[in-house]
Hints:
Structural class: alpha+beta
Distance between the termini: 100 Å
Strand content: 5-15%
Amino acid sequence: MENITARKQAEEALKESEERFRVLFESSPDVVGQVDLDLNFIVVNQMVQSVLGYERTEELIGHSFLDLVDPSDHPRVLEDARKLLETGVIRNIEYTFLKKDGTPFPGELSASLNLDLAGNPKAFTGAIRDITARRQAEEALKSSLEKLHRALDGTVSALAATIETRDPYTAGHQRRVAQLACALAQELGFSPEQIAGIQVSGFLHDLGKIAVPAEILNKPGKINHHEFSMIKAHPQVGYEVLKGVEFPWPVALIILQHHERLNGSGYPHGLSQEDISLEARILAVADVMEAMVSHRPYRPALGIKQALEEISRHRGSLYDPEVVEVCLRLFTEKGFHFE
């Protein structure tokens, strides 16, 4: 006689485990299957019917996994299979899959390596997920974001045009300041997202001039102290107008600070050094450069050479030295010019 209680318990445990696996295998919303090391199907669940259009699971047994993938993705499949042998798992790999009738659809594969009792590779088990709905949602979101960006760009352009109608002598000033500021930011290693914020700030930096009488903006002679005080208020006015707008960037703050200077001699708050944001320091150099090379009611254009001499002479005192250095390089070595 032999007591086989332990063996029976092990058999029952194995049977329960196999049943749990079978339930998970068949109830999965994804196509779940196992292929040998040559990528030929050993077993696959019933989802091949609804996802891939096969009438019976037997249709795939013995056939290659590559039959389900667009030929253009075959090299990647083989490379990923090699990685799977090395790492034991791959997750969320996207391929273009093919239904039985040849219809392509976007799918995602996750798979793991199966080992035998000796620890040697024997098969791959994986799941294919149809991500068509997700892709459609992503495209819809992308389209919506593009519409929002176009609306934002249109609003910014309209505001900039409104300012220019009151100050026709500086028409194009904000656009050119934005152009140079973006070039400076790019040279300084700003990300595309940060550069987009610089561009919007450049387009709107003189928004506060809507509060300055047009006769002062267009005055051909020298302005008096009272008139200059009104002009000096325009960064604060621009800030007050825009501070409630939820831009993805600190546009209102950049506009508020673009006339501040490193030595504290700027306005409206006499900030100095690191209290002034880097974006505002960039905008300050771009603003001075464009203003000096352009015609104004009270003086003719001074030219690039004189403008570069101005920012060079005051680097470190009025203007950020690194920004000045980059500006000099843009004009003297890289051929930058205002458009």
